[in-house]
Amino acid sequence: MKIHNNSAVSFHYSLTDDEGNGIDSSEGKEPLAYLHGAGNIIPGLENALEGKSAGDSLTVAVAAAEGYGEVQKELIQEVPREAFQGIDSIELGMQFEAQTGQGGTVPVTVVAVTDEIITVDGNHPLAGKNLNFDVSIEEVREASEEELAHGHTHGPGGHPH
């Protein structure tokens, strides 16, 4: 069976950047399962898997625009240290939930620290990066009605985990 919209797909993968540095991998874990066409995985990878079958292996180069997007400079902001009340030590790489103007939250990462100013970045850590996937497709099946209604897979055979 070939991968098409509403297929439940599971695959093993390894992900590297353009310099060959390992970013993520399913090695030693369960394969990643997703519902094809539901936006569960980045667009560039989903598009490359269209029409493939269980047993296929492929290498997919995904440009930043088809992955986590380009870096948006407006998501990098300088915040007065006073905004972090109750936090004694603020270090590079720390993550916080920032309030948005619409009442929601967005994860931000501390990228610079001075005595007065904390610079935070609301971009995804992989924004602006080209992503290189080595993929081996393990299973392709029709999604269950429940999976289609929920917009994601539920494990082997479509049963909830």
Description of the molecule:
By secondary structure, this protein is mainly beta. Helices cover 8% and strands 37% of the residues. It has helices at residues 43-49, 145-150; strands spanning 7-16, 22-25, 32-35, 57-62, 76-80, 95-99, 105-113, 117-121, 131-142. The strands form two sheets. Strands 1, 2, 3, 4 and 9 form a five-stranded antiparallel sheet that branches. Strand 1 and strand 2 form a beta hairpin. The two termini are 24 Å apart.
Instruction: Summarize the main sheet.
Output: 5 strands, antiparallel
- Euclidean distance between termini CA atoms: 24 Å
Low-pLDDT residue spans = none
SS strand fraction: 35-45%
* Class per helix and strand makeup: mainly beta
